[in-house]
Amino acid sequence: MTVREQGPAIEQMAVLHRGFRQDLATAPGLVRRLRAGDHDRIRLVVDHVRDLMERLHIHHTGEDELLWPLLRERAPDDLARIQLMQDQHGQVDELVRQVTTLLTLVSADPVTYRADLADRLDQLATVLDEHMTVEEEELLPIVARHITAAEWHRLGEHGMTSTPRNKRLITLTRILDVATPEERRVFLKELPAPIRLLWKFVGKRQLARADAELYG
Predict the structure, then answer these.
(1) Quick check: 55 and 124 in contact, CB under 8 A?
(2) How do residues 44-75 score in pLDDT, each as one tens digit?
(3) What is the pTM for the complete model shown?
(4) Positive or negative, the Cα torsion across 46, 123, 164, 166?
(5) Residue 51 in contact with residue 166, Cβ under 8 Å?
(6) Start and end of every Hemerythrin-like domain (predicted)?
(7) Handedness of CA 178, 62, 104, 106 (dihedral sign)
């Protein structure tokens, strides 16, 4: 997330949320189509969903550690909304734990457990969409009033540094891939030139190959 003088670039949150919504919309179908004995495909889909759960966990951990405490201190009139966000994070975290457990079971026996995993992913998509909608409509205006650009930037830094090094480029590329041209311009403006070059010449190809393998 970028630093800018006029305040936090809260519109970037919508880009992150858009990526989660898109990935969770397609994940249940990928799981339901798994077949016994297709070990390469099972591994590919399981790894994809596990990576999605890890990205979601990192995203929410950053908010839990860096955002909600500041808002609780600075926005006492909005404590009910902040508490709602934390309560919803708890619901999402529980579903993420259930999905993670089912991933291990699906790896061993996809026919028995694929329906349970797909149903849980559908449930997670519904709960997460509700949470993100409330966050975008009710919490981000509070963030704009009480969080500085530097504090917002630290939230983005947390997300990237918490991501394993070998996944940082493709994670960044996934974010930029769902951004509009103007949103992408804002993100890229704050990235060092070497990272922009890596995204352009390596990251985009890496994501295209991964998506082609996953979605066909």
Answers:
(1) no
(2) 999 999 999 999 999 999 999 999 999 999 99
(3) 0.95
(4) positive
(5) no
(6) 10-142
(7) negative
